[in-house]
Amino acid sequence: MAESHAEVLQQVWSRETMPKVMKIISTRLKLPQRDLISLLLVSSSLHRTLVSSPSLWLVLDFHEMVNAGDRLLAALALTRYHHVKQINLEFAQDVEDKHLDILRNQFSGSLQNLEHLNLNGCQKVSDMGIEAITATSPSLKIFSIYWNVRVTDVGISYLVKSCKHIVDLNLSGCKGISDKSLQMIAENYQHLESLDITRCIKITDGGLQHIMVKCSGLKSLNLYALSSFTDGAYKKLSLLGHLRFLDLCGAQNLSDEGLFSIAKCKSIRTLNLTWCVRVTDAGVIAIAQGCTSLEYLSLFGIVGVTDKCLEALSEFCSNTITTLDVNGCIGIKKRSREDLLQLFPYLRCFKVHS
User: Fold this and answer.
1) pTM assigned to the model
2) Alpha helix positions (H), the chain
3) Helix pair angle (127-135, 97-106), 10° resolution
4) Alpha-carbon distance 221 to 209, whole Å?
5) What is the DSSP letter of 151?
6) CA end-to-end distance (rounded Å), the chain
7) For residues 317 and 291, is the Cβ–Cβ distance under 8 A?
8) Tens digits of residue pLDDT in 190-237
């Protein structure tokens, strides 16, 4: 019996159109989760093809969504998400400890491959939630829990107990953690590459020194808005030979002596010295001479620097610097664009006081 026109079209769709669609989806587009789900409704053929492609269902993205806890449970009940590698709940609403406990009890098998978990801004998650989610995520490498004031050293103890492969850790704004957390992190994550402890106000020199002694492979360290550290800790930064990003904004106790040690971190590309008010030309000149791969430097608000440090930066870093912020540096004179390009030929952004 001859095939109907509809059957012929279906065969053409499956044989010719579907492979093209799949190639676009899998290699050229990084579709948001909601768009992928919408594609399931296009046709039964597309639905079958998409569902049978595991690589398309490795991410669950519920950032800024309401009822995110319930949505997460519903998604992980579906077979296609049983190999998920990334879950994003950043600023999602209605994510609570109870949801993470249900994950542990009912869907632990679905999280064995989870590598990246973002709980930023999930204020209803506490140490108990951390215990539940980390117990089922042994492959976790990237963990972020920005601005959570309920998590304490207890939560970090659960993390280090269950997740042995963390290389990227964001604890920014977690005001409940102390030096004890940094000691646990240093002892368990000696291959750590990125650490953000912005505004973790209980941490002292001692806690930070644990990190710098044990985690010598750090590439990114964010100490933004931590004014209590002293040169005693900053001098230990010289141990971080692979450091590329360092944010010291608001380091009010950092002196030129501390910068002399930081200048030994020759791989630094980005350095934020905003409001480091004790710094002078001597410290910045040391940075220029030591960190010759510097691309971004902020000296915002430092009144103790002059054109001398700018000249040193031009001499040693002229081929790398693209962004230089000297806003509020009253000792540095204004220059024309042409003059700046003479000093820094690759400069794209120069911020100076008016």
Assistant:
1) 0.90
2) 5-12, 18-23, 33-39, 44-51, 68-76, 97-106, 127-135, 153-162, 179-188, 205-214, 231-234, 256-262, 281-290, 307-317, 337-343
3) 20
4) 13
5) -
6) 84
7) yes
8) 999 999 999 999 999 999 999 999 999 999 999 999 999 999 999 999
